[in-house]
Amino acid sequence: MSLSLILLCVWVVVAGVLSMFPSRRHHWPLAYALMAAGAPLLVFIWVENGTGWALITLVVAGLILRWPVIYLARWLRRTLTGS
């Protein structure tokens, strides 16, 4: 297993552990930190393992960070439709 995939596994475990703690701000600061760490990791996985693993990583990150993805989709829909 390559270093980038090991780091992805660590990222997933850290995301799971962080989600177990209660938060008054609904975990948004943690989500921003996970996105900031996940973006270079995604590039690293793409360079080291190829496009297939990068797409799998993107899906995994989207499943873990589902609310930022939902808000992004809503914002894009509002922006593109002009509503």
In which range does the helix fraction lie? over 70%
Give the oligomeric state: single chain
Low-confidence residue ranges: none
Radius of gyration: 14 Å
| DSSP strand count | 0
Summed over residues and divided by their number, the pLDDT gives a mean of 92
Main sheet attributes: strand count, strand direction, barrel closure: none
- Strand percentage lies at under 5%
Question: Based on CA inertia axes, which overall geometry fits?
Answer: flat
Distance between the termini: 47 Å
Judged by helices, strands and strand pairing, the structural class is mainly alpha
Count helical runs.
Answer: 4
Number of domains: 1
Q: Which H/E pattern describes the elements? A: HHHH
What would a concise description of this structure say?
This protein has helices at residues 3-19, 28-49, 51-64, 66-81. The protein is mostly helical. It has one domain.
Walkthrough of the structure:
The chain has 83 residues and is mainly alpha-helical. It has one domain. 83% of the residues lie in helices and 0% in strands. Helix 1 runs antiparallel to helix 2 and helix 1 runs parallel beside helix 3.
List the topology elements.
Elements: H1 3-19, H2 28-49, H3 51-64, H4 66-81
Helix pairs in contact: 1-2, 1-3, 2-3
